[in-house]
Amino acid sequence: MKKIFAKRLRFLSLSTVSGVILLSFLSIFQKMALGANPFVLKGFIVPVLFGGTAGGIIGSILFKNLQLIQQLRNTNVLLEDQVRERTKELNEKNKLLEDISNTDALTSVANRRHFDSFLNIECKRLSRSTSSISLIMCDIDHFKTFNDTYGHQAGDECLKNVAAALRSIARRETDFIARYGGEEFVIVLPDTKLEMAVHIAEKARDAVKKLGIPHKNNAHEKVVTMSFGVSSMSSGESNKDYASILISKADEALYAAKEGGRNRVIQLKTI
Hints:
single chain, alpha+beta, five-stranded mixed beta sheet, about 65% helix, about 15% strand, elongated
């Protein structure tokens, strides 16, 4: 559309100049035919020719300005497209870096730093709502002797398989799994009461056992098993440190599960 307009403007300018000159000469010839004084005509011709020339120059300048404006607009569009593309690429790279910084490299679940951030956010949300939150802490039984017996490479594979089993149990988008450290994992269950959290922990315990990873030093089962500690809180006072309480109680429950013979789930409700 802009190119068509430019062509029309150029054509109009040239047509205007040509028309002025043509009409001027027709007028002159008419006056000469009527016997007008040539010297008077001379004074008439010069302004007409000057005006026609000036009109042509102005039309040419307008056309060139229009071309420059169009070129600038095209350049701006190109630059805007490039900026959008670069911004998209930068956002994707930043997201990738964020994911890497929040993920445990070995097991591909969230790492401890991401867990701390997620739990604090959910606990703050809990303090402003009338809901519940549960935390499951779980630890692979006799993992040190597993590493000593089968080697660290087998230990790494064991951690990967256990993490995958835990992911298969916590299926809601809001459920959060992280490697807490070493052979210990945590599962955060927003909007989940204690009874449901215990049910999920039992399913996770069964899923890990069903992996059937050989562990001859696990005296009772002869396969890799996990112990689970579960804590749960409902919304209460806004000044309570929900995160610290949840972790402390879940860790206490996990210790009780270890002391009670391992491969079991122990629960503690805090509020």
